Amino acid sequence: MEQGQWRQARRLVREARHAIALTGAGISAESGVPTFRDAGGLWKSYRPEELATPEALARDPRTVLEWYAWRRSALADCRPNEGHRALARFFLGRGESGLVTQNVDGLHTRAALEEAGKGPAEAALPLELHGAVGRDRCQSCAARWPAEPLGETLPQCSACGGLRRPDVVLFGEALDADLLDRARGLAEQADLCLVVGTSAVVYPAAALPLATREAGGHIVEVNVRRTALTEAATLALRGEAGTILPALLDRQSGSPR
Asked: Which of 84, 108, 130, 218 is catalytic?
């Protein structure tokens, strides 16, 4: 990476009055989070697109819930990496929430809680646009709980008796409108948008960095490869988030080695 480009990136971070970060699957791949939609993502001959839908949940809830239980077990040993931790420290240090993620693995939340220690973690807790696989939600009344192991019978809501399902956005479901409005508001007031580990092709999340740019702010992309957003970015930093983000965001840090 050119030193001039690195100095410019550090300057944009240092001078930002309001910052937002949008993260995708790339940041969690460094923690060993499986990619469930690639060629190796089959489960009992099913593809995710066949299971993660409202229609599949209505037709065969047992199979869908068993697949999510398998996903949860696959995530059990994954830990936040230095990229997650650097973002948590950055927003904790600013005291200003601005972390938005498309990931459902919960690693940003864990990093925020661990980096905050005994203090408040709110500033580093993410807006989880697509939900979190580690939570359950009632299909009927939308009550939420931490996920529980799948038993012999289908899990039911203790309040209304509805089906307890993973608190994730299924294919064909709309994102939470209030959550999306909050994310848009953050993007529109930001003068810096860090875009980390996302291909920037899934909307409406992919529109958030463009909202920052349209408001006169800068986009800094961190990714191992070129994406659909690269042309719109002020700077594109090539490399893994776990290496680049601590050097970019932590005070007194130098350029990544």
From this structure: 130
